[in-house]
Amino acid sequence: MEDTKAFILFAIGEERKKHSLSRVIVSEENEIIGLTTLKHINYEQKHSHIGSWLGYQYWGRGYNESAKKEIFKIAFLDL
């Protein structure tokens, strides 16, 4: 649990510095099942990397695809 708290605090700090943007992936049962992140955001060159993790039991069910579509909307419309 301490590792999770440390990661969350790190992610919040990176987002405040505008270095990354993270969003949790939530199941239909409102459980956190993963995360998708834009990182190394370069506003001048309009470039970033994307990464995600998702619980194995949720693979192939469209969660990752939906999460990436949503974070891309944020990237292209708001950043």
UniProtKB/TrEMBL annotation:
GO terms for molecular function: acyltransferase activity, transferring groups other than amino-acyl groups. It holds the Pfam family Acetyltransf_3. InterPro entries: Acyl_CoA_acyltransferase, GNAT_dom. Residues 2-78 form the N-acetyltransferase domain. This is N-acetyltransferase domain-containing protein. It comes from Bacillus cereus HuA2-1. The lineage of its organism: Bacteria, Bacillati, Bacillota, Bacilli, Bacillales.
